């Protein structure tokens, strides 16, 4: 338990022992890939991690990483076990991590097409022991780092690559649904930069208004004081957890053609289609927020890093007349909208890293071409239940907290086509039949324990 004096002082983070991807945004453009590895021999597994350590980009190396590319590593519960971590230590991890999300799918709304039996093998299985992400600014740097990664596996038959997913920035620099992404990340105390704001126009990272209050590092990293004034319980020994966190890995297939048809079916003009898309998300595709640009897109606003995120709901749009109460953006970060309730929004924030995969569907195409396309989401936080699982079960799949009953998030909720989406309007609100699922969870959504592995290889039986 931290005393009031220590809480008042800004915590100093051990940035060289923290993986950079936890505290830094990935520069754009980029090309990258995710890999899953299986460990059949603990000695080989530990040797592989030892070889990888010098190539992992820490928070202090992020702007000049090894090989001019970014490599990150995460371990699953079954991976720790495959490395030979003692059972006593394994038992000290929280239930949500030990069980994995396949076992917790129902409470998260992962049913129907998104249930675990439909996930891509080996996602959702106990075979995924190590997750590696590799990103670079160009193909040459990417291949150089991949060759280094291959060298780490040379003469280690007890470690094998069982899955690869290429995931790179689209030519549009937006998501498959056409939206600018990565704008609203929280400001973490002691992170070494003033804000994890979206890098606009290639400029430097700096403080941007509107990101809400600075949040204690213990909400996102183990070993530090959180918003409740204490340190989240850590798995033992401390070397397994300090400066680490938990990551929920989600691979989402996006039904882009269905999204476009839904807009066309519920709007009478291209302009109305764009407005409906903005109402569902909470921002225009450019990134301009509806609260500040309620009727028309504002490209100047979207391009201004000092204004694009500087808004509130309770003060500027309490009834949701500009940004609907059930819009995706407003659900995932209610900001001050719950100021009159007992809910402390700061306790339910999570870091998010999104990466598109698959080819773009040609502009204007309304029929699915059968290609696999979507987005990989990494949800990062120190408490899987209070952060990630709460976001999924309560704010995405339940509308009670904003007075919408059983309405779900129009973009990432577990919709089945029978629900509704309400758009407040005067004199009469507009209520649309909810679209069939615009996304399908088809990946291993298993929590991964991620830390900079500087000492990870020393934690052995």
Structural class: alpha+beta
Q: How is the quaternary structure best described?
A: single chain
Number of strands: 11
Spatial shape: globular
Concise overview:
The chain has 12 helices and 11 strands. With 461 residues, it is α+β, with helices and mostly antiparallel strands. The strands form 2 sheets. Strands 1, 2, 3, 4, 5, 6, 7, 10 and 11 form a 9-stranded antiparallel β-sheet that branches.
Task: Please give a structural write-up.
Helices cover 20% and strands 16% of the residues. The chain has 461 residues and is α+β, with helices and mostly antiparallel strands. The protein folds into 2 domains: 4-251 and 444-454, no CATH class; 253-347 and 388-440, no CATH class. The strands form 2 sheets. Strands 1, 2, 3, 4, 5, 6, 7, 10 and 11 form a 9-stranded antiparallel beta sheet that branches. Strands 8-9 form a two-stranded antiparallel ribbon. The two termini are 30 Å apart.
């Amino acid at each position: 338990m931290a005393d009031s004096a220590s809480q008042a002082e800004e915590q100093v983070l051990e940035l060289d022992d923290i993986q950079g991807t936890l505290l830094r945004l990935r520069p754009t453009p980029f090309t990258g890939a995710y890999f899953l590895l299986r460990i059949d021999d603990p000695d080989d597994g530990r040797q592989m991690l030892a070889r990888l350590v010098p190539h992992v980009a820490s928070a202090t190396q992020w702007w000049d990483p090894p090989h001019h590319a970014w490599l990150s590593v995460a371990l699953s519960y079954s991976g720790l076990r495959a490395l030979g971590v003692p059972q006593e230590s394994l038992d000290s991890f929280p239930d949500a991590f030990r069980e994995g999300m396949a076992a917790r799918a129902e409470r998260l709304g992962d049913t129907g097409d998104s249930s675990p039996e439909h996930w891509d093998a080996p996602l959702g299985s106990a075979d995924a022991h190590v997750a590696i992400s590799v990103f670079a600014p160009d193909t040459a740097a990417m291949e150089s780092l991949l060759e280094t990664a291959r060298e780490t596996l040379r003469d280690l038959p007890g470690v094998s690559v069982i899955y690869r997913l290429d995931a790179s920035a689209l030519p549009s620099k937006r998501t498959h649904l056409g939206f600018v992404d990565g704008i609203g990340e929280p400001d973490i105390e002691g992170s070494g930069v003033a804000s994890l704001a979206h890098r606009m126009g290639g400029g430097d990272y700096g403080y941007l208004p509107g990101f809400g209050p600075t949040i204690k590092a213990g909400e996102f990293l183990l070993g530090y004081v959180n918003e409740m004034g204490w340190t989240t319980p850590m798995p033992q020994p401390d070397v397994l957890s300090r400066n680490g966190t938990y990551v929920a890995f989600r691979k989402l297939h996006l039904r882009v053609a269905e999204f476009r048809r839904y807009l066309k079916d519920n709007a009478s003009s291209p302009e109305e289609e764009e407005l409906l898309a903005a109402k569902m998300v909470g921002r225009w595709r450019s990134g301009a927020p509806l609260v500040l640009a309620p009727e028309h897109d504002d490209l100047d606003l979207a391009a201004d890093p000092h204004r694009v995120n500087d808004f509130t709901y309770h003060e500027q749009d309490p009834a949701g007349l500009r940004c609907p109460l059930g819009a995706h953006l407003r659900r995932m970060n209610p900001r001050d909208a719950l100021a009159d309730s007992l809910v402390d929004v700061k306790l339910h924030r999570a870091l998010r890293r999104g990466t598109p995969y698959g080819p773009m569907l040609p502009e204007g195409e309304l029929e699915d071409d059968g290609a696999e396309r979507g987005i990989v989401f990494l949800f990062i936080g120190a408490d899987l239940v209070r952060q990630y699982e709460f976001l999924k079960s309560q704010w995405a799949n339940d509308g009670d907290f904003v007075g919408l009953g059983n309405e779900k998030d129009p973009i990432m909720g577990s919709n089945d086509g029978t629900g509704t989406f309400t758009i407040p309007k005067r004199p009469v609100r507009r209520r649309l039949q909810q679209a069939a699922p615009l996304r399908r969870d088809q990946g291993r959504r298993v929590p991964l324990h991620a830390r900079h592995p500087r000492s990870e290889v020393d934690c052995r039986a």
